[in-house]
Design goal:
With about 210 residues, the protein is α+β, with helices and mostly antiparallel strands. The chain has a single domain (about 5-195), classed as Mog1/PsbP, alpha/beta/alpha sandwich (Protein Transport Mog1p, Chain A, 3-Layer(aba) Sandwich), CATH 3.40.1000. Helices cover about 25% and strands about 45% of the residues. A 7-stranded antiparallel beta sheet has the order 4-5-6-12-11-10-9, sandwiched between helices. Strands 1-2-3-13 form a 4-stranded antiparallel beta sheet. Strands 7-8 form a two-stranded antiparallel ribbon. The protein is globular and about 45 Å long.
Length: about 210
């Protein structure tokens, strides 16, 4: 089986793992959760070519980010997510709004509890081996993140980095998936996406832009 086929299988497993949580989000939406809209737009920049910007709106709250160059975009509004896939299918990055787990926030520090999200991760991937726990930031907010290795149904080892960031629009999950051998090559793509992440403050959203200036 080719690397391409095995990685596609891994992405399929990832999406299947997301479905129970996405289903919960859809049920919540029918019980008063704000409507969710996600759009992408193409922008041309001299000397660089084009890039895509994603803008999401949940009720009166918004957030936006720039999709890494060389990635195809798949939008799934029903499940409140965008999936960016590297042109050779070697890497996929999912950004989605999810329901916050019960007791996820530490009231004393007003931060997310890493142990809650570690448990959530292991519920999705019971055989996952967590290599590192860290904190990542996006849009000026920080949250727990994990590097872990797991295997898909074909027995192919995959590497993931997942981060959870609180925003006014809801809890946003960033999830990178690639082959274990190529994780370092594609981590920069997730980092660049998170660096461009912005959310609205007092109803105003500062849209991220790319520049052709050094």
């Amino acid at each position: 089986m080719s690397l391409l086929s095995r990685l596609i299988g891994g992405v399929a497993v990832l999406l299947a793992a997301l479905m129970p949580f996405s289903g919960a989000a859809q049920i919540a939406a029918t019980n008063g959760r704000p409507d969710f809209h996600l759009t992408t737009s193409r922008h041309d920049l001299e000397g660089i070519g084009h890039y895509f910007r994603a803008v999401a709106k949940a009720g009166t709250n918004q957030f936006a980010f720039i999709v890494p160059k060389g990635y195809f975009v798949r939008v799934d509004e029903a499940n409140r997510l965008l999936r960016a896939v590297e042109r050779e299918d070697k890497c996929a990055i999912t950004v989605r709004v999810m329901e916050s787990p019960t007791n996820a926030m530490d009231k004393a520090t007003a931060t997310l509890k890493p142990e809650v999200f570690r448990e959530l991760l292991l519920q999705r991937h019971p055989t996952a081996k967590i290599a590192e726990e860290l904190s990542l930031s996006a849009g000026g907010q920080s949250g727990p993140a994990f590097d872990f290795v797991w295997k898909n149904d074909s027995g192919f080892s995959l590497q993931s980095r997942i981060a959870f960031i609180p925003t006014p629009a809801g809890l946003v999950e960033f999830h990178l998936i690639t082959s274990a051998a190529e994780k370092e090559e594609f981590t920069y793509a997730l980092n660049s996406l998170m660096l461009t992440f912005r959310f609205s403050v007092n109803g105003k959203l500062e849209l991220p832009e790319m520049s052709n200036k050094l």
